[in-house]
Structures are given as C-alpha cells and as structure tokens.
Amino acid sequence: MRLWAISDLHLSHPRNREALADLPARPDDWLILAGDISDGPRRLDGCFRRLAGKFRQVVWIPGNHELWSLPRDPYGLRGVALYQSLVEVARQHGVLTPEDPYPVIDHPAGQVLIAPLFLLYDYSFRPTQVPVDQVVEWAAEANSVCADEALLHSEPFADRAAWCASRCEETAARLAAFPDDLPKVLINHFPLEERLAVLPRVPRFTPWCGTRLTHGWHRRFNACAVVYGHLHIRGTRWLDGVPFQEVSLGYPDQWDQSLGIGAYLREVTVAIAPSPPPADR
Questions:
Q1: Does residue 277 carry a pLDDT above 60?
Q2: Which residues pair with 278 in a beta bridge?
Q3: Three-class DSSP category at 178
Q4: CA separation for the pair 44, 134 (Å, rounded)
Q5: Residue 114, φ and ψ in degrees, nearest 5
Q6: How far, in Å, CA of 184 to CA of 219, rounded?
Q7: Could you state, in order of their start, the residue ranges of all structural domains in the chain?
C-alpha cells in the first residue's frame, strides 16, 4: 500500500476541475487531499464522488477556501457549522476527516498513524514588532490581502485565533493519547513550522499561513512525515530527520497542464527512525 497526496486543487477554476477526471486510479493505495480542494460543499461533494472509488481510502482536511461563506451559498452556514457540514459531506463518501478516529495502517516503511489535522492560523507568523491588531494593515502595506478577512468566519468563537487555539489544544491532546513510539503522518493544510512559511513573491502573506502553537510538533509527536499545502510552492524540506512535504497543485497558471494532473500527485515519503539498540545489562 502506498500513500499519495495532493492539495490546493482549487476546483472553482474550470481547467482544474476538468483535469480532475484524468487523475489516475490507484485502488490499492490511499490518497490525502490536504485542503483547498474547493470553495463550497457542492464542488467538494463532486470531488469526493469522483475520487473515492479510485483509491482504497481518501483522507481530507479543510483549507481556508473550504471554509469560505460565499454569498451564493443557499444555506448561509458560517464558522464551525460550515465545517461540520463539510465533514458530513465527506463521510457520505467514506472519506476520513479530522473528526474521525486516526487510523493505524501498515505502510511499506512500517506501521504508522495517519493524523488528518484541522488547526487554522492565528496571525502569529508575523514579525515580533508588529502587534496582532495591526497585522492586516501591515500586510496591506505590501499589497498582501487575504480573502479570508471577508469570507472565513469563526462563529461561535470570537475570532479565528480563538478557534485556532481550541483546535490546537484539542488536537494535541488526541495525539498525545497515542504511544510515543508510534510513528505518525501529520497532515495539515498550513505548514506546522514558521520557517517553512517563506513566500518570496508575497512575503507579508505569512500571517495567514499557520500558528506558532504547532512549533516542534513533529518532534513532540514522533512524526515520520508531515504533509501540507497552502503555499503553492511544491517541494520537500527535511527538519530534524522528518520530511515536510508541500503537495499543492495550485491555480491553472501554476502547473503544467500538458503533463496532466497525475504528474502532481506526490507519493508521501515516510521516514521511520530506527529503534535504538537495547541497553547493555
């Protein structure tokens, strides 16, 4: 069994949506969809309908785009209620979500826990001299604006930072309940480490890219792989012996359509550290 991943399909764009039909079937393998698949439940449902039958198991986590409350949405859901409705859409197709039990699977590299996370962001990826209540204005000075400010709501939490803090606390407790020596594949839409949130073209977009609350989670929870998206900068960085893998497709002008979408499906690198030798007696 192999583990594949892709994120940021952005199926609101017709070219990306048309390309989805060409994603190859791998019925013996698992597929991770690491967020920003679509804005709105209708297209998300269509994606799951197409892909669930092509893989043994599909795992999904939301990005910020899935959580947008759009004017055309007939249900008018916001915040947690919208997220819960998306989870139900996924479950209708047998897709695993952050609200489901974390499964332990037999990977060729060994037994690993698959942990789909939903953690959000809290504007802490910003220079220390910039107060949090001025961070949006600071970003706007360099023409960095995020549509989340108008479209991503946090009800019933006071704001997105409070929602993020709650998610991180709850998720850390869930992960801590598993054995320390069980390797874990951590999947989040946003990078878990601030040093990975480097955006040369839009350097002041980082406040919308994660939270310092997850700093060191790959060591704390014995990660053997970390999968994320959001940055639209594909690649693998190794931190402390752990492969951090950004697996985004991106907008139509950010990938070579002549190659087909299958070329952007990334096999997840799993690096399980060898067990230490037994101590001499």
A1: no
A2: none
A3: coil
A4: 34
A5: -100, 115
A6: 10
A7: 3-267
What is the band of 74 on the pLDDT scale with cuts at 50, 70, 90?
A: low
Average pLDDT over residues 110-128: 97
Angstrom distance (rounded) from CA 182 to CA 189: 22
User: Which are the contacts of 252, defined by CB distance < 8 A and separation ≥ 6?
Assistant: 13, 15, 16
CATH 3.60.21.10 applies to domain 3-267: yes
Identify whether the C-beta of residue 257 lies closer than 8 Å to the C-beta of residue 15: yes
What is the C-alpha to C-alpha distance for residues 30 and 40, in angstroms, rounded to an integer?
Answer: 24
Segment 135-144 long-range contacts (CB within 8 Å, at least 24 positions apart): 135/207, 136/207, 138/204, 139/204, 139/205, 139/207, 141/204, 142/202, 142/203, 142/204, 144/202, 144/203, 144/204, 144/205
Close Cβ partners of 192 (under 8 Å, ≥ 6 residues apart): 186, 210, 214, 215, 217, 218, 226, 228, 244
